[in-house]
């Protein structure tokens, strides 16, 4: 049995969750884990001097729990209860391969997670498009006026710069303005190549 752990990181509202779900339906024995499920309760998230809740930082998440969840899945993917029915066209050679897609906005800036990835993807968006998409979403707690410009976007740039400065980190940057069909087709082909390498 072989496991493949795929990171699908990137900007808020970049299409990570939609892409993860699309890929889950396209790939055999595939599960997803969402980083959003590891947010601390609002009462435990720090507030800065402007009154902004600091959600877009690692301290707002139970990262250790996330690592544990991924490791547990890797040890026993079939008992996770998550593995979906496999697509009809699965070729025999992929029957004993299990794929986990982990999606979230802060995947590659936490060292313990970086030991786990087989492939890393990062969705990007230009500022205007990201802000437009963000304004159409309803969050709990809701974004306060100025939150996107005062916290969300600066944190995205900070963490993205950290990745770009880390020369050893292999990341495939994806353009989040492309259609979901284009993105899923590209990532799917890439993962299939990775699976073929595993089998060799």
From TrEMBL:
<keyword id="KW-0547">Nucleotide-binding</keyword>
<dbReference type="InterPro" id="IPR027417">
    <property type="entry name" value="P-loop_NTPase"/>
</dbReference>
<dbReference type="GO" id="GO:0046872">
    <property type="term" value="F:metal ion binding"/>
</dbReference>
<keyword id="KW-0662">Pyridine nucleotide biosynthesis</keyword>
<keyword id="KW-0418">Kinase</keyword>
<dbReference type="Pfam" id="PF13238">
    <property type="entry name" value="AAA_18"/>
</dbReference>
<keyword id="KW-0479">Metal-binding</keyword>
<keyword id="KW-0808">Transferase</keyword>
<dbReference type="GO" id="GO:0005524">
    <property type="term" value="F:ATP binding"/>
</dbReference>
<keyword id="KW-0460">Magnesium</keyword>
<protein>
    <submittedName>
        <fullName>NRK1 kinase</fullName>
    </submittedName>
</protein>
<dbReference type="GO" id="GO:0005829">
    <property type="term" value="C:cytosol"/>
</dbReference>
<comment type="similarity">
    <text>Belongs to the uridine kinase family. NRK subfamily.</text>
</comment>
<dbReference type="GO" id="GO:0019363">
    <property type="term" value="P:pyridine nucleotide biosynthetic process"/>
</dbReference>
<dbReference type="GO" id="GO:0019674">
    <property type="term" value="P:NAD+ metabolic process"/>
</dbReference>
<dbReference type="GO" id="GO:0050262">
    <property type="term" value="F:ribosylnicotinamide kinase activity"/>
</dbReference>
<keyword id="KW-0067">ATP-binding</keyword>
<dbReference type="GO" id="GO:0061769">
    <property type="term" value="F:nicotinate riboside kinase activity"/>
</dbReference>
<comment type="pathway">
    <text>Cofactor biosynthesis; NAD(+) biosynthesis.</text>
</comment>
């Amino acid at each position: 049995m072989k496991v493949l752990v795929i990171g699908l990181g990137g900007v808020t509202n970049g299409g990570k969750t939609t892409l993860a779900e699309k890929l889950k339906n396209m790939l055999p024995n595939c599960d997803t884990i969402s980083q959003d499920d590891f947010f601390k309760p609002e009462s435990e998230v720090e507030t800065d001097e402007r009154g902004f809740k600091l959600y877009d930082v690692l301290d707002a998440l139970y990262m250790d729990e996330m690592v544990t969840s991924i490791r547990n899945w890797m040890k026993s993917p079939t008992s996770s209860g998550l593995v979906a029915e496999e697509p009809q066209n699965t070729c025999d050679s992929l029957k004993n391969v299990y794929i986990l897609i982990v999606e979230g906005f802060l995947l590659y800036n936490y060292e313990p997670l970086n030991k786990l990835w087989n492939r890393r993807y990062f969705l990007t968006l230009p500022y205007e498009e990201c802000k437009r998409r963000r304004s159409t979403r309803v969050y709990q707690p809701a974004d306060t006026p100025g939150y996107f410009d005062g916290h969300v976007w600066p944190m995205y740039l900070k963490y993205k710069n950290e990745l770009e400065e880390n020369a050893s980190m292999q990341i495939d940057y994806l353009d989040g303005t492309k259609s979901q069909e284009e993105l899923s087709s590209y990532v799917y082909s890439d993962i299939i190549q990775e699976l073929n390498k595993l089998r060799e």
